[in-house]
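@channel sequence for tomorrow's demo:
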Amino acid sequence: MPTAPHPAAQPPTGGWASNPGLLAAGAAGCASAVCTLWAMEGLPFGAFLLWLTPLPLFLAGLGFGLGSAMAGAGLATLVVFLLTSVTGAVVFLALFALPVPLLLALALRGGGGQLKLSGPMLMLGLWPVLVLLLTAAWMAGEGGLEATMRRVVESVLLRLNVAANDALVGLIVRINAAAFGLIAAVAMVLNGLLAQRILARRGLARHAVPPAGQIALPGWYPLLPVLAACAVIAAPAGNDAVAVSTLLLVLLPAFFLGIAGVHQRAGGRPGRVPMLGLFYVLLVVFLQFMAPAMVALGLFDHFRRGRAAST
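structure tokens (generated this afternoon):
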């Protein structure tokens, strides 16, 4: 029985208005802009909608190609700029409009019927580092990013009636950027997986997700945490927030590789779904203990697969 061709593969017959890729880009751009503007205006459920902003762009890119995602991101950026300010547009670019197309470009490269997740997983750590370093360089003439974050943290703690002692403030400042980078990276992963699942159920997905055991990082990846650790050691005492956050951020790819390793080991086992559910509950509740364990598992799998590939 013949199957209908993928909508994106059908040649347009009625001009741009009947081109599914352009229509998807327009819908994705408008939906992403609405989510961001809703959050910027402080409307109900704004925080939830903010982190759903990448979903329409992922839907357009995974279903209709990289061009649709890029056009949608450009349209959304223009709408945010026109309705807010240059600062709002820059924030939107840094959080969503640039990383989503870059992730898709890495995932869709080469074709082959499967998504290539090595590059996107690496970028989940490197993109927040790039944004952090650019922000630190931009604010270098204003007392530095660390001093600004310290003032913000002290102000927030004061409003919460929490004693702003130096040890607590210093700890929050040192991990603040890394925590935000983790939230942003998790949002990207969840939105990408949700978009792929929605498209796959409707027969619109162009590529399949590879098995967890096939997901890997570049062989040179462990050099990044080593270099970041050296930067932490070399940073002046009391002025190492950027270096510490950079180290934590470059460990994010190993963290996600560790989670993929858990899925690989749970595959095919009876009770897989409740096991993974319990795992994620523990991951959220005991993140301070589970995160280092996931990084260690990710690095273990990385070196194990490297040895296997070389034999």
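heads up for whoever presents: The CA atoms of residues 94 and 131 lie 7 Å apart.
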